Amino acid sequence: QVQLVETGGGLAQAGGSLRLSCAASGRTFSSHSMAWFRQAPGKERKFVASINWSGSRTYYTDSVKGRFTISRDNAKNTVSLQMNSLEPEDTAVYYCAANPGGVAYSTSNEYPYWGQGIQVTVSS
């Protein structure tokens, strides 16, 4: 069982930056792949970025490529999402997710563990 807690959300202006962090409990974090998803009001949850167990492979949805960076620190049991050049369209609740298999996926049903979500609001 892995418990995930997101921090770092809030309000930013368009063009600004925010950094989300996700702290994971459990001794097996380093074997899990991790991902960030987001859900805008009235819309379905969508993939943002994922990273494999070692951090050697990362994947992004097209709309955030070149602006967002996912990273992990297995010694600290954390995964982060650095978000630069924010746009109003990035406004959503952001969720951290974990998969015990270690392979980074882009579909939500591959991730059995989820955080509670954190609000990110980007003003124009």
What does this structure look like?
With 124 residues, the protein is an all-beta fold. It contains no helices and 11 strands. A hairpin with a 6-residue loop joins strand 5 and strand 6. The model has no long low-confidence stretch (mean pLDDT 96).
Sequence-ordered SSE layout with sheet pairings:
Elements: E1 4-7, E2 10-13, E3 18-24, E4 33-39, E5 46-51, E6 58-60, E7 68-73, E8 78-83, E9 92-99, E10 113-114, E11 118-123
Parallel strand pairs: 2-11
Antiparallel strand pairs: 1-3, 3-8, 4-5, 4-9, 5-6, 7-8, 9-10, 9-11
Task: Please sum up the structure shown.
The chain is 0% helix and 48% strand.
The largest β sheet comes out as: 7 strands, mixed
The count of β-strands is: 11
Residue windows where pLDDT falls under 50 for at least 5 positions: none
Total of helices = 0
Helix percentage: under 10%
Write the H/E string, N to C.
EEEEEEEEEEE
Structural class: mainly beta
Radius of gyration from CA coordinates: 13 Å
Q: What distance separates the N and C termini?
A: 40 Å
Mean pLDDT: 96
Shape assignment: globular
Percent strand? over 45%
Which keywords apply here?
seven-stranded mixed beta sheet; 11 strands; 124 residues; mainly beta
